């Protein structure tokens, strides 16, 4: 296998979905329905897996809570019960078989304690082993503005630059305290950035002082879009932060470890040609239902 070929994707899906309570007391947020362009109601996680496969990924590891193994297994591994199968239209029976085939590419990994996004990523270490991987959020879906999917844009760029790639989008100062932010030097204006620093949910003051990027409008910043291709060395920094109990707001985060990875081996930022839809908050989920289709 070429050193820069990305075969595996990791999707953390082990959170509690507290921002969508009480619905998430009975349905995992990753299983909330969205309607695709064909009018099919599908769980969010299925759209994310399909996005990964569109980039040529051959194995998708979904990190779940042990108690949720059954419901994810039902979706990706088990055929519908006989009574349901009998009631399905021919088109849905065909789709059910497609799901079984897709499920062969899905591996379910577990996070026994919910200790944050960075910790969830670390739970995939033994499965990923020593190769680069695509990292996706469990509550974001994507639509490309060009004929290549958002994930394929990332995978192809990684093959060229052969270093970790973080997808970027522009955000106004008012909401950057909800996102990971980056700064660096443009290699190609408004497209490729040599990242020099990543910061988790910075204050506006900090961003104005440390995260300005040349050529950007005042009070506009580059923030993480939610797709990453990372070298396996990220696990060394995650392991260190867990070992030393370095938490941010009580949890092990990814961004601080990304910054360490960036300092050690360089990192490319890519302003993705596409849109990101957040299904993890009531209002953004409602908007996703309208816009995604």
From TrEMBL:
<dbReference type="InterPro" id="IPR005771">
    <property type="entry name" value="GalU_uridylyltTrfase_bac/arc"/>
</dbReference>
<feature type="domain" description="Nucleotidyl transferase">
    <location>
        <begin position="8"/>
        <end position="286"/>
    </location>
</feature>
<dbReference type="InterPro" id="IPR005835">
    <property type="entry name" value="NTP_transferase_dom"/>
</dbReference>
<dbReference type="InterPro" id="IPR029044">
    <property type="entry name" value="Nucleotide-diphossugar_trans"/>
</dbReference>
<comment type="similarity">
    <text>Belongs to the UDPGP type 2 family.</text>
</comment>
<protein>
    <recommendedName>
        <fullName>UTP--glucose-1-phosphate uridylyltransferase</fullName>
        <ecNumber>2.7.7.9</ecNumber>
    </recommendedName>
</protein>
<dbReference type="GO" id="GO:0003983">
    <property type="term" value="F:UTP:glucose-1-phosphate uridylyltransferase activity"/>
</dbReference>
<dbReference type="GO" id="GO:0006011">
    <property type="term" value="P:UDP-alpha-D-glucose metabolic process"/>
</dbReference>
<dbReference type="Pfam" id="PF00483">
    <property type="entry name" value="NTP_transferase"/>
</dbReference>
<keyword id="KW-0548">Nucleotidyltransferase</keyword>
<keyword id="KW-0808">Transferase</keyword>
